[in-house]
Amino acid sequence: VAPLIYMASLIASDSSYTQQPNITKKAQILPYLRRLSQISQNIATIAKPSQPSL
Question: What string of DSSP letters covers 4-18?
């Protein structure tokens, strides 16, 4: 999950991203956040079987 947060911070700190109007930034970041959440869900699904059941 940490690499995903790092990727999101890279997207957020991108210079061309920060120079654009707020509405445009939100419109651009939403697909990224959806993609990140999908990836994190996939990682969680893959990681579950290897984790000991409590």
Answer: HHHHHHHHHH-HHHH
